Amino acid sequence: EVKLQESGGGLVQPGESLTLSCAASGFTFGNTAMSWVRQRPVTELEWVATCFSDGSTSYHRSVQGRFTISRDNAKKMLWLALNRVFTNDPAMYYCANSWGPLATTSDVARGQGTQVTVSS
Questions:
Q1: pLDDT value of residue 28
Q2: Which of 35, 46, 73, 85 is the Cys-Cys partner for 103 at CB 3.0 to 4.6 Å?
Q3: pLDDT band at residue 106, thresholds of 50, 70 and 90?
Q4: Coil, strand, or helix at residue 29?
Q5: Residue 102 in 3-state DSSP?
Q6: Span 59-67, mean pLDDT?
Q7: How many angstroms separate the CA atoms of 85 and 16, rounded?
Q8: Is 25 helix (H, G, I), strand (E, B) or coil?
Q9: Collapsing DSSP states into helix, strand and coil, what is residue 27?
Q10: Backbone dihedral angles phi then psi of residue 31, each to the nearest 5 degrees
Q11: How far is CA 108 from CA 4, 88, 93, 111, in A?
Q12: What CA–CA distance (Å, rounded) separates 88 from 98?
């Protein structure tokens, strides 16, 4: 059974940083492209970033240069470092075992999510 468990969300101020974690099990993590997606209030799921099995990365233009996705295949862990959080970054963040916008589709496994809130 595929299991993805996100953690690390919380309340931050604009410009601050936060790191999200995802623990994976139940599939061959090392061979799987992994992504972070997010759902902001009253919007659909939005792809944020992908880390491929070789460690290469891809980012949505809205987070390019601010967020960093990384992974440890041996530990089956995925991270998303949110640097310089903007006021439009608050959302429920999910990790997913797919790549690119495919990670937002309904047949892709995602965890329960971790909430990021930005104080105004």
A1: 95
A2: 35
A3: confident
A4: helix
A5: helix
A6: 96
A7: 6
A8: strand
A9: coil
A10: -100, 5
A11: 11, 25, 15, 10
A12: 24
Sheet containing strand 18-25, edge to edge, reads: 3-7, 18-25, 77-82, 67-72
pLDDT reported for residue 42: 84
Residue at 115: amino acid letter: Q
| H or E element that contains 95 | strand 91-96
Mean pLDDT of 47-59: 96
Per-residue pLDDT, 46: 96
In the Cβ-directed half-sphere of 8, how many Cα atoms lie within 13 Å? 18
Place of tokens 């936060």: 18
3-state secondary structure of 101: helix
- Is the Cα torsion angle 8, 85, 119, 92 positive or negative in sign? negative
C-alpha closest to that of 86 among 102, 63, 58, 53: 63
- Cα–Cα distance for residue pair 105/101, rounded to 1 Å: 8
72 Cβ partners below 8 Å, 6+ apart? none
